[in-house]
Amino acid sequence: MTNAEAYDRGFAHLSSHTVGPLLARVRDGSAPRLLDVGCGTGVVTAAALALGAEVTAVDADPAMVELVARRHPYATIRRAALPELPFEDERFDAIAGNFVINHVPDAPAALRELHRVLRPAGTLALTWWKGDEMTATGVFTEAIAAAGVSYDFPPRPFTAHDTPERFTALLERAGFAEAAVEAIRWRHRADLASWWTDVVEAGGPRFGAIARQPPETVARIRAAYLRLAEPYAREGFPVCAYLARASRPPAAA
Q: Contact 9/198 with Cβ under 8 angstroms?
């Protein structure tokens, strides 16, 4: 289970940059019923509520669900995970998923499920990281290797779909139309010591295991991280995400 408070201080701050583009249809008032899928600590939920949306948020992690429910009593919060959602067909006007599609075990099945719960003419917006430009977490991977630690990272099935061309094709096969993908780049500014603590303490599948290493190993990885991260201390870590938008075709007349 994730440490939701550490995740909120670290990864949620990193991922909040894409919230505005994700919620473009909510901002113009055309999507009052929104599903925040893979809500994490609720950065999308909070922004959508502020725009007047009727928000339903789901996450697989009970710590995340508890935190979002506590913070946002006016949203409907459920524990659920793709590719199975506990909602009737065509329930939502829009769906936003901020860095969740890259974590699901079966992206094609997940997209089919999102298509099912989206109304005709409804819109979908999803983000995922561009791995070779993800410096903010890449320094941890590099630090583990530089420290000489044998470390088996969990498999990432989404890499089979993570280019704009492949993901656009995947959306179309799931029944979506008007699919388009854009790249969003920014610099993630964070205190280097705090970023280390928040990423490691969050307990996620890729870097949470650092904290379970012997203390001398943790210290060696941390020293390598600080050395590798130092060039980004002033300007921030350059990162890049993809944002995909698509719609469910309107119902036939």
A: yes
Q: Do you know the residue count of the chain? A: 253
Helix axis angle, 164-173 relative to 107-117, nearest 10°? 50
pTM over 0.85: yes
Phi-psi region of 119 (alpha: psi -120 to 50; beta: other; left: phi over 0): beta
Task: State how far the Cα of 183 lies from the Cα of 128, in Å rounded to an integer.
Answer: 10
Q: Which residues contact 106 (CB under 8 A, 6 or more apart)?
A: 83, 157
CB 158 within 8 A of CB 101: yes
Per the structure block, which two tokens stand in for 211?
A: 């904290």
Give the span between the Cα atoms of 67 and 63, in whole angstroms: 6
Paired with 35 in beta bridges are: 56, 95
- How would you classify the pairing of strands 92-98 and 33-37? parallel
Paired with 129 in beta bridges are: 241
Q: Write out pLDDT tens, residues 136-160.
A: 999 999 999 999 998 888 888 999 9
Residue 14 buriedness (CB in 10 A; 0-12 / 13-18 / 19+): buried
Over 80: is that where the pLDDT of 27 sits?
Answer: no
Quote the Cα angle for 154-156-160, to 5°: 160
From residue 241, how far is each of 122, 138, 163, 231, 238 by CA, in Å? 23, 14, 11, 21, 11
Q: How does pLDDT run across 215-248, given as a tens digit for each residue? A: 999 999 999 999 999 999 999 999 999 999 999 9
Largest CA distance in the chain: 67
